[in-house]
DNA sequence: CCGAGATCGTGTACCGGTTAACGACTTGCT
DNA sequence: AGCAAGTCGTTAACCGGTACACGATCTCGG
């Protein structure tokens, strides 16, 4: 029963583990690369902005940023104009990871899909997109019907 | 970049959230249904057995079992013959959830794949299976090459 | 029969994520 | 000017998962 859900979650776990292993080769933990990717694109963003971009809650970003600051990948600095805001800046170490991490990620994507033909890959992407859409709709439709 | 990985993880998150919502309607947390499913099939298993069956580490099962025992879904009892072993037994409350939870899960699977034709669903399953295989191979292949 | 090793559950310390509560700071309106 | 309301980051308490260390217990060989 629930063939698809089971297969998907098993796949999810395997991919997660593979990604984790790949990231750890560069001293990163899973998820931190997403945060870095945002900062690579543009420095000095706030936790809230990053959270929205990565589709995660703000506290998650705050905690992760704390660990990454301890690890010397980024620094936290208060905004001068609006003192509520905190802005995250890359350190040289954080900036230096860009190339290696992006490569690592590309390689993983390639390895994981290497047994698929182009057609299969296309089917997979479009079907997955539909599932994603349905699942998102399900979540959004939770509030109504008062 | 990394189209597939991104789409998959987004889908994963949406499915996870949807499953969580569904389970909470019955007072369960995500993941607990897997543990219950094992016990529904056969009572009195050990944390180690369950961990292997669900493909999770033993401490994860121990912690979850603790919470579920507190919630009155299962009870823990030491094995008489081998005192190292602990066996988990369903309470009436835990047993009663079987029908509702299995239905909930089937409904979710159906809703999430309802926009797929049979062909699409078949393609999705087989492609996902290949990805799963590749990812698993990647993990297994971490040790060698000394 | 007894000690070395294997086995098993548990505790601790992590990571990543969530929701809810909180305090500090801005803004907007009177 | 000053206060109410909104915005923002942080903290705390959860859940699920991992790796690692530990102590209790069983088993098997001498």
UniProtKB/TrEMBL annotation, chains A, B:
Keywords: DNA-binding, Transcription, Transcription regulation
Positions of the HTH marR-type domain: 1-133
SMART domains: HTH_MARR
GO MF annotation list: DNA binding; DNA-binding transcription factor activity
A Pfam short name: MarR
Classification via InterPro entries: HTH_MarR-typ (IPR000835), WH-like_DNA-bd_sf (IPR036388), WH_DNA-bd_sf (IPR036390)
Highest taxon listed in the record's lineage: Bacteria
PANTHER family recorded: TRANSCRIPTIONAL REGULATOR, MARR, TRANSCRIPTIONAL REPRESSOR OF EMRAB OPERON
Designated name of the protein: HTH marR-type domain-containing protein
Organism: Rugosimonospora africana
């Amino acid at each position: 029963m629930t063939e698809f859900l089971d297969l998907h979650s098993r796949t999810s776990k395997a991919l997660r583990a593979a990604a984790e292993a790949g990231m750890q080769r560069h001293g990163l933990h899973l998820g931190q690369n997403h945060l870095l990717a945002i900062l690579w694109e543009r420095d000095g963003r706030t936790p809230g902005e990053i959270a929205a971009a990565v589709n995660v809650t703000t506290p998650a970003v705050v905690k992760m940023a704390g660990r990454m600051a301890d690890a010397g990948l980024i620094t936290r600095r208060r905004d001068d104009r609006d003192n509520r805001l905190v802005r995250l800046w890359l350190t040289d170490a954080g900036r230096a990871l860009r190339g290696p991490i992006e490569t690592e990620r590309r390689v993983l994507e390639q390895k994981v899909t290497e047994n698929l033909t182009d057609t299969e890959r296309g089917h997979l992407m479009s079907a997955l997109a539909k599932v994603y859409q349905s699942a998102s709709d399900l979540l959004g439709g939770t509030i109504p019907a008062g």
